[in-house]
Write a structure and sequence with these properties.
The complex is a heterotrimer of chains A (about 500), B (about 325) and C (about 325).
Chain A lengths: L8 E12 L2 E12 L3 E6 L5 H8 L7 E6 L2 E2 L5 H6 L2 E4 L11 H7 L4 H10 L16 H14 L4 E5 L7 H16 L3 E5 L3 H7 L2 E6 L2 E7 L4 H10 L23 E8 L3 E8 L4 E5 L6 H9 L6 E6 L2 E2 L5 H6 L2 E4 L13 H10 L10 H15 L14 H15 L3 E5 L7 H16 L3 E5 L5 H5 L2 E6 L2 E7 L5 H8 L2 H6 L1
Helix pairs in contact in A: 4-5, 11-12, 11-13, 12-13
Chain B lengths: L1 H27 L5 H26 L7 H15 L5 H26 L3 H19 L9 H5 L12 H19 L1 H11 L1 H6 L4 H27 L9 H11 L12 H19 L4 H29 L1
Helix pairs in contact in B: 1-12, 2-7, 2-10, 2-11, 2-12, 3-4, 3-5, 3-10, 4-5, 4-10, 7-8, 8-10, 11-12, 11-13, 12-13
Chain C lengths: L12 H11 L2 H18 L6 H26 L7 H19 L1 H25 L4 H22 L9 H8 L1 E2 L2 E2 L1 H18 L1 H11 L1 H6 L4 H27 L11 H10 L11 H20 L4 H24 L2
Antiparallel strand pairs in C: 1-2
Helix pairs in contact in C: 1-14, 2-13, 3-8, 3-9, 3-11, 3-12, 3-13, 4-5, 4-6, 4-11, 5-6, 5-11, 7-8, 7-11, 8-9, 12-13, 12-14
The chains are: A alpha/beta (about 500), B mainly alpha (about 325), C mainly alpha (about 325).
Chain lengths: ~500, ~325, ~325
Amino acid sequence: MTDQTDARALLDASGVAKSFGAVRALTDASLSVNAGEVVALMGANGAGKSTFVKILTGALRPDRGRVLIRGQEARVGSPAEARASGLVPVYQEPSLIPDLTVAENLRLTDTPVDPFRAYVDDLGIANLRLGALIHSLPLATLRIFDLARALASDPDVLLLDEMTAALPTDLVERVLKVVRARADAGSGVIYISHRFTEISALCDRAVVLRDGRTVGDLAIEEGVEDRVVELMLGARIDLGRRAGLAHAEARTGTPRLKVRNLAAAPKLTDVSFDLHPGEVLGVVALEGQGQDELFDVLSGFRRATGGTLEVDGTPESFGHPADAIARGLTFVPGDRAHALLAERSVRENIALPFAARIRNWGPLKLRHERDRVAHAIEKLQIDTRAQGEVRRLSGGNQQKVTIGRWLATGVETLLLFDPTRGIDVRTKRQIYPLVRELAANRSAVLFYTSELEEVPLACDRAVVIFNGRTVAEIDASEADEQTLMRAAYGLAEEGAA
Amino acid sequence: MSAILRAHAWSIGLAILFLALLGLAKVIQPSFGITGLESLARAALPFAFATAAMAVVVIVGGIDLSVASMMAVASVTAAVLMQTMPAVPAIVITLAAGALMGAINGGLIVVTRVPDIVATLAMLFVWEGVALLILNAPGGTAADWLENTIRGSFVIPGLPKALVLMTVCVAVVWVPLKRSKLGLSIYATGSHENAAFRSGVAVGKTRIAAYAVCGLFAAMGGLSLTMLTGIGEPVPGPYLMASVAAVVLGGVVLGGGIGGLLGPIIAVFILRIIRTILTLAAVDPNVTTIVEGTIMVAVVMLGALVMMRGRETV
Amino acid sequence: MSSAPDTQDHTPPLVRVGRFLGDNPMIPLLVLLAALIGVLEIMRPGIVSPFWAGNTIKFAIPLAMLAACQMLTMLTAGIDLSAAVVATVAGFVVATVSPLHGDGAGIAVALLAAAAVGLVNGFGVGVARVHPLIMTLGTGLIATGCLQVYQRLVIATGSDIPDMLEWLGTGRTAGLPNGLFLFVPFAAIILLGLRFTGFGRLLFALGSNEHAAKLSGTRSWQVYIALYLLSALIAGITGLLYVGMIRAPSLSLANPLLLPSVAAAVIGGTSIFGGRGSYAGAIVGALILTVLGTLLTLLQMPEGARRILFGAIILAVTALYVRFTESR
């Protein structure tokens, strides 16, 4: 454990809080980095990591708390100012300008060329061409360039956000070596990653974030993984009891969905599973492991680049969500903003699919619509006091509207992408039984969730996706959070290998 | 490197197309020669400036629908000023007014956060109104020597003065700009605004500067109109659609970050010579307008389709 | 009933006022209209009479119909800058075809020409995904070119306006302009159609959130083609009415109505960003602009200042809208 007021602290953030409307993303986040240290920042999905990073780098202003850099209150109002104060971030998405050359990108940030060249060499990219256009380069090279550019600007504190994602193993080793050397030379490094192997190889400490607050600050030593996983999971909230029973007999006959070696470049590489009528199949994955692409392919927003999809035994490739809907695959996306007409009424939002086809462009069947909508509202117990505009509903009620849309049209296969993200416990407790009830009525449900404790509550089985591949299939009875978390971090696989 | 070559290849290809069309003009009408070239360059003058103006804001990721209206303001301003003062101060004032109009457009977009296409649509009407207030019917005057700067050939016959003047004016502004940090920021903002912001570019200021440069080029366009006709014309000409089409045909991608001014300006000459050829072929001038309009719309449509394709593959 | 709290607690007052006016755009609009009429009466006592009212309505009708084109396309975050040209084309065609082939044929050809422009617009916007503003501006230019060519072809035939259109455009029944016989059913169809048809729903849906509409199975290109076709047909019908009113077909017949039609829709509370708008508002907007026009004429406001005013209104209203909705 470290002393928060350490005079050597290069960066010291304490008591940072930030809310977005009613959502409290951060309540009490703290982090300090000393010279010569590499500190891992860890947290499960939705713990507030990305908000914290944005505050540290000046993209957001905190509501409370302070960020000190070299003991000076950092008044970071923009990324430019954060840079000037000595903190240089390397984001998950490279911040190089795609239509400019490497040299022009260096000039834009006033980065000296020679150190950049030296770092690129150290990091293992041979024959650097400064005249190459950024968008013509592969992603791995760009991440290396982004890192080299950050290093060349001689930062006090370097913040690396998922730096090694999408990097081949040999480059990862080089990166770890260079970053370690940089820290040994007196810089501080904040290292954000999901990969325990890298963290134990590189980092001195791990700061764990959960529900918007810092819950642990541990030295990296043997067996720290279990302790970190424990901290990330935290105390359980009672989410109710499992409703309904698994239908073991359901897993016979033709599956509703048969997915084999499905790929969607670049993130989804090889996913296979069966989903039977009457079953709820959980999908477990850390952020950005290809689950977004999987749901996009199944819902018709994107074509697969490989593999096959069969619906009730017929091969399918959807070019438009309308095709998927015609085959009974209906999608509730993770971001409610993508699904709702914010300024329209609950009724119009739920009835939207009724009007989609040309033959329904004429006069509305108002009575039919009213009945179906009323049915969905009742079933989901949507609070309709604020009827006028959906954007005035609470998050939980908005989510119910997006689900209610498909209840009103009739569900065959429901694709739920993280339906409980950012909504209240009460609504969550209503959603699990609903999902079970759909399954009991022979619907098939694919249920991605970022909250692992939901898996045993709602699902019969779960597939785990890591790095774009299905790495495990776990029965609900064995799907405790430890098991799922280890699988999601690819730990089970490493143990086996 | 190959991508840079490809960008230049586009301009080279356009130039070859232009030469081929010149040849075609000669075949259709053997008397087409130096005079024809000179009048072609003169006619292209306002279009070239309008296109340069449009290209700068498209590169920064925007669009300015008020280009033709700003040209009208500049045209009447110069024509009215030259009634009472020598040409040089009148030109300086007009150019400054152009940059100011552009900066106002950019400033309104940045401050109000109204999308550029809507904000500049409103400003199209405002500048149109301003031009009418300055001069409610064609009038004013232009210094005589001005007309001579664009009439005839420069040093060698067949090198129209109008072309030389245009090249010099555009280059004086664009070459130093493109080499400066501001120029880099303009491309960066248009290419990927978020990445530019993260790289420390002052995105808002960059955008205002780009619109100011657009206004400056539009003012040059307006001046060229006054030089061509000898009077100020308060009603905006058909430069908006033409400039958008030339910009797209010239290899600047709607959406920003890619392209330069060379391609669009060659594209202007291509669109102009198509008109000349149709005229030489004794096609009804009104039909020519239709053909021209259709080419422009088709170019813009193709540009949009290509951009969509590009988005999908990236 | 759920315990979910209302989320309105922290809204700043300015936003709340904006929201209220956004919900009830008719209130400030009608107040503004009444105020303008009041000012007019003060400036020139006695001017406001039943005859004046009839005249105002008569001139507001074509404007309100073209405003329908703008309002409908704006619902999907579009705009139809070819509407005025299409109206001109329809008016000119009907006046030149009718004397040769009869009134029915004249009207049919006029509307066919309008529909052709609409289809091209719809294809460009819906399939090629060109920004509607650029697309309709371009087709407007082409249509103008075609009209010029057409005029040279028919220069000898002379023109005549079908009696029915003249009756609609200039006649009065019980002091009210006959144009209302066309306009009242038209407005009713638009108002009811937006509320009670699937197509109306989709217009709001596309403008509000195209992704959500796609997610629900809407193929947006189909809607765009139908929408721009509809807009062009409305513009065509407006042209027929307008040529009956002006009684002199020309190549720039309805063109001066373009800018006011955009302004009428924007003043009437239609968001240029899509998803929000009402035709009732646009109708009042057209009345306001017509009265404002009378006022500016009385003030001897030059044409230039008028345009500046219209441009400023569009920008100011849009900027206010952005301000109000930003806190979302």
